[in-house]
Each structure stands twice: as C-alpha cells, then as structure tokens.
Specification:
Shape of chain B: globular
Number of domains of chain A: 3
Structural class of chain A: mainly alpha
Number of strands of chain A: 1
Oligomer: heterodimer
Structural class of chain B: mainly alpha
Largest interface: A-B, 18 and 23 residues
Helix content of chain A: 55-70%
Order of helices and strands of chain B: HHHHEHHHH
Number of helices of chain A: 12
Radius of gyration of chain B: 16 Å
Strand content of chain A: under 5%
C-alpha cells in the first residue's frame, strides 16, 4: 500500500469514527477533535497488526509496542481487529489488577495506596477504548523507576505500570511487613507522604546486608571495601543476582525490574561511604 | 492542519454536482446556481472550514442550508450565492461557539426559523443577536444540568 492509498484509507476510518462520535448528527468536527480521532484510529490500527499468536496474555499486555502492519487484512479489518484486541486487553488487565489487589500492601505509603486503590480502578471506569484509546486517563503519581510506561499510551501505559507495581509488590512481599515499615521509617521518615518507590530503600538495605556478609563492608566502621564505582556496581549486580536466586525463585522479570535501581543505589552508597553514613542505610544493624 | 485540507482534495467535483442538483428543487422558488457559482461556493466553503478550523466529512452543510433557506421570502436570485456563503460562515461560527452542543439539523432549523421571523431577513441580526441568544441559552442549560447534578 503506497502513502497516498494509506492516507485515503486512514481518512475513511477517521470519517467512520467521526460519524460514530457525532451519531451522524453533525457533518463536521473541530480540528482538535479530528486530530484526536485520527490518533485513536492510528493507535487502534497499531493494535490490529500481525502478532505472534503464541504469546501469553501477560506478554500480550507488555508487547503492544511491537506490532507490525498486517498485509493480509484491509485497513478496516485491521482496525476492527485492533479495537477488539484493546477491549480484550482491558478485560485481561482488569483481571490482572484484581489478582495483584488480593495481596496488595501499601506499607503506609499514601501515594501508592491512592494510585492503586483509587486511580487505577478509575482508569477502568473512564477509559474510552473507541474514541480515545491512547489516553492514559490517570496520572500514575507513584513513581516506579523503570518508567517504561512513560513511553507508552493508553492501555499499554497502564499495563506497563501495573507490571511494575506487580514486580514491586512481589519484591516487598518476601520481606516481613513490620521490618519493611520500620526500615522505611528509619531511612526516610515521612516516606508515607512521598511519591517515591519503596523498592529503592529496601533493595539498598538488602544489598548492603549482603555486602556485609560477603566481606565488601569493613566490619569495624561499615565502610566500603571496593575502590571504584565500576567495582561497586559489579558487587551490587552480583548481590542482586544472588538475592533473586535465593529468595525469588530466579524470577527474571523481577530481576530486570530491580536492576533498574542499581545505578542510583550505587551512587547513594558511594556518597554515604564518602560521608561515613552507611550505617544510616542499615538501621538495626548497628 | 494541512493534512485535513489534503484529505478533502478531490471532493470538489462531487460537491459541485451536489450543489447543482439542488437547483431542481430551488428553481421552484426562483433560485438557482450556475456551475461558476457552484465552483465559487466550493472555494468559499474550503476557506470557511479552514478559517473556522473544522474538518468536514459526509455531504457537508451547504446543501442542508440551501434546502432550509430556499423558501425564504428574504432571499433573491441576485444575492443568492453571497447569502449562502455568509450563512455557511455563520453556521460554522456558531457550531464552534456552541462547542458542538447543538446538532447540524437543530442549528440549521433555528437559523432558518429566526431568519424568517425575528431577523426579518437580516443576516447581520442573525449573526450578531439571534444566534448569540441561542448560544447563551445553550450554555445556561448546560450549566444548569451540572448544578442540579451537584
């Protein structure tokens, strides 16, 4: 299909959607609305492209950015296929949300609680799969570091965000809740009202403990036994790998999630070491 | 917004034919368009859409305006084309002003009824006073709904 034919077919779909939007009671819409409808058509078409039929539902949620145009379908067929997929994806994602909600803990963090218990259900309530499927609806205030959701739109962004929340919940759930809360209080008093992920302080704590056990911290003053940032980074990567193997059944998705925090943690530990404050990151150890 | 204009290209011929087809009905009221008039109406139509920042699909509004206004006692053949151009401008202006709260048919019907009655055929009055009243009414109704719901 050449560029001109593509534009013509796209135009037909925008007109079709505009007619549905106005219930055929108007023969025109403002440019802004037409732009929004065009965006909706393009987003939906992208979801109707060829995909590996063997992907699981969870992978389906994650991989929507990798669609290709299906040459065997007309654009209208691809559009309908995309719309059906978006609706199906909403249902799958809603089930996934409920699954996480069964064991969800907020550890006192208000932003996490509000985002998960109020904002995300609000998304399912107000998401418009037909006329604004690209819209995220909610702001996702609770900050999770990988932030892959920032590069995505609509249901894809929410899917990515839920995956990150799920990964964090899995990570936190293996540690005693009272320990997590007291550690957070010691490291960052007031964490309850902040928007930052709970992963980083807990992961920092667990990795420092591991480093202590494995001789990377001098026992007399808890200073680092590593000399360069690269060396520290390597130690942290190994400690994370060990943590994943020993406590999290070698969960690769979780490993990938935690790895995003390591550069920041390395800088934080290095700074703490320079200032002699590593003990503050290890409450209860000394 | 060039792409919206590009998408409309190639529809001119069909639009000209549509406008000319209305002659069979409007001639009964002593009004008709020449091919040159129809061409100028298409040009004016595209200019208005661009100015009013609207994307049109389907048959467009001019045919509806023609059928709604052709029996007016205030429109004559000498000013027919110019009047249609002005009516179309006013239509899109008020479509925007109403934030699309009013359908095409409702707005055309109101315009034709008011033009014939309250406006006594004055395009200026229609544009400046009568339609402004309608928009105020619409906005008040819309606000009223929200207040009651609260």
């Amino acid at each position: 299909m050449d560029e001109e034919e593509y534009q013509r077919e796209l135009f037909k779909l925008v007109v079709m959607l505009a007619e549905r939007f106005t219930h055929k009671e108007s023969t025109s819409v403002p440019y802004e609305k037409a732009e929004a409808l065009m965006r909706a058509v393009v987003f939906t078409l992208a979801h109707g492209g060829n995909r590996d039929s063997l992907v699981t539902e969870t992978e389906e949620i994650k991989d929507f950015g990798m669609v290709v145009t299906d040459e065997t379908l007309t654009m209208e067929e691809q559009y309908i296929k995309g719309r059906n997929r978006i609706v199906r994806q909403c249902k799958t994602l809603y089930n996934y949300y409920n699954q996480i909600a069964n064991t969800f803990r907020d550890y006192g963090c208000i932003a996490l609680r509000e985002t998960f218990r109020k904002a995300i259900p609000g998304f399912f309530l107000y998401y418009d799969a037909e006329f604004a499927p690209y819209h995220r609806v909610i702001t996702m205030d609770y900050n999770l570091l990988p932030q892959r959701y920032l590069d995505k739109e609509g249901i894809d962004a929410i899917a990515e965000y839920l995956h990150e929340i799920d990964a964090e919940q899995q990570f936190l759930a293996k540690v005693r809740e009272d320990y997590v809360i007291s550690m957070l209080h010691s490291v960052n008093p007031g964490y309850e009202t902040q928007f930052e992920s709970l992963t980083e302080p807990l992961l920092t704590n667990l990795l420092l403990r591991s480093m202590g056990r494995n001789g990377y911290l001098k026992q007399e003053n808890l200073s680092l036994n590593t000399s360069t940032m690269e060396e520290l980074m390597l130690v942290l990567q190994n400690a994370t790998q060990e943590l994943i193997m020993s406590r999290y059944d070698n969960n690769k998705m979780l490993h990938e999630y935690l790895a995003c925090y390591l550069p920041g943690i390395a800088v934080r530990i290095s700074n703490a070491d320079e200032n002699g404050t590593i003990t503050q990151l290890l409450p209860g150890v000394r | 917004m060039e792409k919206w204009e590009i998408m409309l290209k190639g529809q001119e011929k069909a639009q000209i034919q549509n406008y000319l087809h209305t002659n069979s009905y409007t001639q009964g009221f002593g009004l008709s368009l020449t091919e040159e008039d129809a061409k100028q109406l298409v040009i004016a139509h595209q200019k208005t859409l661009k100015e009013k920042q609207r994307f049109e699909f389907g048959e467009g509004i001019l045919s509806k305006l023609i059928f709604a206004f052709c029996d007016s006692s205030y429109i004559n053949q000498a000013e027919y084309k110019e009047t249609l151009i002005e009516l179309e401008e006013i239509f899109y202006e008020y479509k925007n002003e109403s934030k699309d709260l009013i359908t095409d048919d409702e707005l055309v019907e109101y315009m034709a009824k008011t033009f014939e009655g309250e406006c006594c055929g004055s395009i200026e009055y229609l544009r400046g006073t009568a339609l402004a009243k309608l928009i105020r009414k619409l906005r008040m109704e819309h606000d009223g709904i929200w207040q009651e719901e609260e």
